[in-house]
Please model this.
Amino acid sequence: MIDLSGQIALVTGGSRGIGGACSRLLARAGADVVVHFRKQAQPALETVAAIEAMGRRSFPIATDVMNPIYVNAMVDQIGERMGGLDLVVLNAGIWTNGAIDTMTDADWARMIGVNLTGCFHVARATVPLLKARGGGSLIFITSTAGQRGEAFHSHYAATKGALIAMVRSLAVELAPNIRVNAVSPGWIRTSMTEHLLTPQAIGTSLKEPIPLGRPGEPEDVAGPVVFLASSLARHITGAILNVNGGSVLV
Model:
């Protein structure tokens, strides 16, 4: 029922974790996928190989999303090699601890630079390609932290809350041809969280129960992303789709 054949997607932070799951599932649905990464090339190469094994076009590209010159060059390369863009998943991000009374200016600036300004750079650079193809979809990966806050991660929560506001703003600005939505995960097992989700640590990390009984997996986020990218969601824009097992009912 979901068929993304002929569509070209970019997934930032698309080599592993949530981004890797999104890259693979978009390819399974028929899309060609550009896999963005920052430093670790091997996971990106493995993800590209998996996509190509499905008969889809793909290539990896390393870019620091905090640098607008590099982002513009990345998007130019995508246009030249793939012929355009129909779908962008803005997933690249970081998550670090930060008590407000010990957080440094550098801690704050890096979080804002990657999670918020990086998304701005990517959105600004890719929207012209989406418009050139007659429309498309932007899907931001946000977080429950951006909806209710997160103690000792206020800088992270601030970036994700700002992205939610950005999604709602762009949904109106870019309508009717470009849809803009977000998927907002709760606890998901990735390399950023695995140390907190071991059997020994999970009771302390999860200070409230998850009604569905477990943390999510990256594939649990990828499914809603592919849904929002598809024609099944053609009348959905400006939405924040929560994927948290019922732990935060916003």
Observations:
- The first strand starts at residue 8 and ends at 11.
- Residues 79 and 215 are 37 Å apart (CA to CA).
- Strands lie at 8-11, 32-37, 58-62, 87-90, 136-141, 178-185, 240-243.
